[in-house]
């Protein structure tokens, strides 16, 4: 990843370490294993069951994950960076604690809360909606790939100092790639990301079923499909355009062009586009209703 030339020494608190927080932390720990970076983590959860889950999950990382607690205030107070990882609807309840709000006012706060703008966070923590650089609030949406260091993390373009912005990007580049996005487009691009994951899984599932129907063992078909998907996505990241990739595969009377023509008979292409547009509109309507 894009690590700096000098070692990082950083304490990170993850408040409400649920599925995404756990995936993020797992990916970071894997990425920095054996590196020069000295990262320590304090994670919180509200229930005994969640705390026990975190203890079991990170039992082999006691040196890095040195605090697992239900005390949000202490975790925030002792951290340099605080990640808000709880459910969006819990924002008002959790930040009704004045001691926690005070602790957060001096920190770089990174919000993973879907549908909650940086201005809403600023208003809750600082008592005003005009978020500025001095508020040190970043809004970030990782993808599920964070747990295997393959996230496409969306970083909202919020007012931050260059050092804070670099730190946010570096931290999330430990678990994949980051993409700066104008904040007004974050919900839209989040919907695109979610739809892409879902539609891709459905496509692979259909490919595997079709392969099995023609006599290919299921695991073999899955391995081939997954690797082809991986190689295609890698080629599209700066190596080839969609048009050139399609042209290179579609030789005269070839397998690929005939497969594509058969696919078009079912109006799959327009169905995919319509699904993405529906996801975007749903996300925009959902966040407006909130």
TrEMBL record:
Keywords for this protein: Membrane, NADP, Oxidoreductase, Transmembrane, Transmembrane helix
Signal sequence range: none
Domain Pyrroline-5-carboxylate reductase dimerisation intervals: 183-283
InterPro entries for the chain: 6-PGluconate_DH-like_C_sf, NAD(P)-bd_dom_sf, P5C_Rdtase_cat_N, P5CR_dimer, Pyrroline-COOH_reductase
Domain (Pyrroline-5-carboxylate reductase catalytic N-terminal) ranges: 11-115
TM segment ranges: 12-29
Entry superkingdom: Eukaryota
SUPFAM superfamilies: 6-phosphogluconate dehydrogenase C-terminal domain-like, NAD(P)-binding Rossmann-fold domains
PANTHER family, per database record: PYRROLINE-5-CARBOXYLATE REDUCTASE (PTHR11645), PYRROLINE-5-CARBOXYLATE REDUCTASE 3 (PTHR11645:SF0)
Protein family (similarity comment): Belongs to the pyrroline-5-carboxylate reductase family.
Name assigned to this protein: Pyrroline-5-carboxylate reductase
Organism: Exophiala sideris
